[in-house]
Specification:
- By secondary structure, this protein is an alpha/beta fold.
- Strands 6-7-5-8-9-10 form a 6-stranded mixed β-sheet, with helices on both faces. It has a 4-stranded parallel β-sheet with strand order 2-1-3-4, sandwiched between helices.
- β6 and β7 form a beta hairpin.
- α2 runs parallel beside α5 and α5 runs antiparallel to α6.
- The longest helix has 31 residues.
- The protein binds guanosine-5'-triphosphate and magnesium ion.
- The site of magnesium ion has 4 residues, from α8.
Length: 456
């Protein structure tokens, strides 16, 4: 990212509080580029590398938000300090570091409780914010549709509500900074009731938008077109893939959370049928629950889809960790029941994706940039969707949790019943996926043999 492009982005910043209390601006004041110190804690259960990666990602988030990370601090502790997140001694050390680097803000890698934030600001003598605030701020900058803006503002206000009093009134006159209020703002004295009123106004507006969307969805169902939702970690190349497959012009940028709104395009499959492809917002580790709640209507497209195209950046160092993080969010938004097709993207930027393909049977590798693998991908999408009409039965021993999980991911489970031999599944599944579970398959769906719980 160049300084110029950053600058352009900064000018384009649209705070999410424009209408709130009449003050303009969001969490971040971009009058200047702030210097930021990052702090993470590794508890014994976590590998240091995972925490380091998380801190690296936090640095990227801070950059995307429009500030400069200047130093990272990683503390090993038995547990998170309930009062100050890091120990008090460490907090004082961080204060010295922040002074040394002339940093105005310290960003913590986990969500801070209102009390922790308050205490830390007291010790540090500067603004203390967390990963959630940074993510919400990026969303605020990137939201462009009415719905997106409403959802982001709602998420920010809900996050802010319990912190109204505690987030350091001593600092309320301090100018600028991520998470700080703008010069002259006295947000912390803002009437709580006004904030609650604003929240309910936004909720009502969102309900209106959703009603409208409900009508559209019904129309679409009547047209009986299958929907494929593109999901995945932020920056994996979801929008690029939509563009490459459909000749669409979705916004693509080497920036986290470039897409916030669902964009739908038609895709013609080799078999002659047409499906709808929906681009969605990207996910990230530790996605704020305020965000998930506020974006539920956008995220619902994933749960309603016939197939999830889970795009993974094959060139990312921790691409397995990203797959896991995405699956966790899919679980939360009720989309884990939809069959998933793993698509490893950015093949051109890797030494090959054989190990990934081998580790994830049924997955495909593509490059949205070079076009490699795209033909195969559309064929596989067609197969997976056509197979959605065919059903099959499987019995999986209770000891084979990984097989159960795999079956859930590769198929649409119509029913599951516990039997003497294990879990009996009736599913919609395509032939290629069914072949992977051949050892557990019953001879024919609906066949009476074995239906009493015996071997099938
Ligand atoms: N080398 C390479 N880069 C790619 C490929 N696909 C996408 N990119 C790049 O990855 C970056 C992110 O692409 P997007 O399509 O915006 O990713 P996204 O998943 O939609 O990201 P968000 O909407 O921000 O969550 C851009 O800089 C793209 O040019 C690919 O196949 N190869
Ligand atoms: Mg995108």
């Amino acid at each position: 990212m160049t300084e110029a492009s950053r600058g352009g982005r900064a000018e384009g910043h649209r705070g999410a509080f424009g209408e709130f209390g009449g003050e303009a601006g969001g969490f971040i004041d971009r009058a200047f580029r702030e210097k930021i110190v990052l702090v993470g804690v590794a508890v014994p259960a976590q590998a240091t590398t995972a925490v380091e990666e998380s801190l690296g990602e936090l640095a990227r988030l801070v950059e995307t938000a429009g500030a400069d990370p200047v130093h990272s601090v990683l503390q090993r502790r038995d547990r998170i300090d309930p009062a100050t997140y890091v120990g008090r001694g460490k907090a004082l050390e961080v204060r010295d570091i922040a002074e040394q680097y002339d940093a105005d803000t310290v960003v913590f890698d986990d969500e801070l409780s209102p009390a922790q934030q308050y205490n830390l600001e007291g010790i540090l003598g500067r603004t203390a914010i967390d990963r959630t605030t940074v993510i919400l701020d990026i969303f605020a900058q990137n939201a462009s549709s009415t719905e997106g803006k409403v959802q982001v503002e709602l998420a920010q206000l809900r996050y802010r509500l319990p912190r109204l009093r505690g987030s350091g009134y001593r600092l309320s006159q301090q100018a600028g900074g991520i998470g700080a209020r703008g010069p002259g703002e006295t947000q912390l004295e803002v009437d709580r009731r006004r904030l609650l009123r604003r929240i309910s106004t936004l909720e009502a507006r969102l309900r209106g938008i959703r009603r409208h969307r409900g009508v559209q969805a019904r129309r679409r169902r009547r047209s009986a077109q299958s929907t494929v939702a593109i999901v995945g970690y932020t920056n994996a190349g979801k929008s690029s893939l939509l563009n490459a497959l459909c000749g669409a012009e979705a916004h693509v940028e080497d920036r986290l959370f470039a897409t916030l709104d669902a964009l739908t395009r038609r895709l013609d499959l080799p078999g002659g049928e047409t499906v709808l492809l929906v681009d969605t917002v990207g996910f990230v580790r530790k996605l704020p629950h305020e965000f998930v709640e506020a974006f539920m209507s956008t995220l619902e497209v994933a749960g309603d889809a016939d197939l999830l195209m889970h795009v993974v950046d094959a060139s990312a160092a921790d691409c397995e960790g990203q797959v896991q993080a995405v699956r966790e969010v899919l679980e939360v938004i009720g989309a884990a029941k939809v069959p998933e097709l793993l698509v490893f993207n950015k093949l051109d930027a890797t030494d090959g994706a054989e190990h990934l393909l081998a580790a994830h049977p049924g997955s495909v590798a593509v490059s949205a940039v070079s076009g490699a693998g795209l033909e195969h991908l559309t064929a596989v999408i067609g197969d997976r969707l056509r197979a959605a009409a065919a059903t099959a039965e499987f019995v999986v021993p209770f000891s084979r949790g990984e097989v159960m999980a795999g079956l859930h991911r590769s198929s649409q489970v119509l029913s599951e019943t516990a039997t003497g031999d294990g879990m009996r599944y009736r599913v919609r599944i395509d032939d290629a996926s069914a072949a992977r579970f051949a050892d557990f398959r019953c001879p024919a769906a609906g066949n009476a043999a074995g239906a009493d719980g015996g071997d099938c």
